[in-house]
Request: fold
Amino acid sequence: MVKQRKLISVICAVALCSALVFSAGCETKAQTGALSGAGVGALVGGLANMHGSWGAGVLIGAGVGAGLGYLIGNEMDKKDTQQRQTVQEGEIKPLGGTVWQVTSIVPKPPKPFKSMVTSFRQDGTVLTTVTHMDNTVETATENYRIVGSTLIINKPDYVINSKFRMDGETLILDNGSSSIVMRRVGG
Reply:
């Protein structure tokens, strides 16, 4: 009986350690939580049922632990996503609250326009207003943030990274395929 308890303890400890080691490769906290929860649950289930059918205890514990671990990890993933969507003050400087008008784009865009004005708001959104040659006006709202000398503009379906440089009242953007020069008109 003592040997069986030691064997159960060793198996449970190995299951826990394996879960923790393998969880390092998980992409989300939900996956990590499920794997870690399964290991901890197997350990607790095995130790709690040493006198009965220890295999059933291990399996039940692993299942319950995986479920609880997944739920906890999933909530952590949701919180992380929400925090990433909240722009920090340092991520909008020095463009936050400024308005710029495009003076040139190289290479020229396929659809010419009369004017393009971009307003970088303090809430981490950028509003671009394009007046087309036929005087129709089109607006687009995107999210932005700044990391070092990179301006990141995104929506859920795309991300544009551009190196940027401010030179007085001039803003120069380069995304690798085009270069945009803008003149400050507000803010």
Observations:
- The chain has two domains: 2-85, 89-186.
- The mean pLDDT is 80.
- The first strand starts at residue 98 and ends at 106.
